[in-house]
Specification:
mainly beta, 1 helix, two-stranded antiparallel sheet, about 70 residues
Length: about 70
């Protein structure tokens, strides 16, 4: 198996839980709000460490980690 690297930090990542994988697909919006499961899901082959993506979600990545 080829090495897999985090799409956020570029370091090696293990492709399993709790890490994230990037996908593409279609999401049907419900009338009552929210959405159903993703249809025609396609894995893009990109992975990220859970910690890296969690920091990106709150707007902190890269050098900002040193100041948080």
């Amino acid at each position: 198996m080829a090495d897999i690297y985090c799409d956020v930090c570029g370091k090696p990542v293990t492709p399993r839980a709790p890490n994230y994988r990037k996908i593409e697909g279609w999401e049907q919006v419900r009338k009552s709000g929210g959405a159903n499961a993703i249809s025609m899901r396609k894995e893009l082959g990109l992975w990220a460490h859970h910690g890296c993506l969690d920091l990106r979600k709150i707007g902190m990545e890269g050098q900002e980690r040193m100041f948080g």
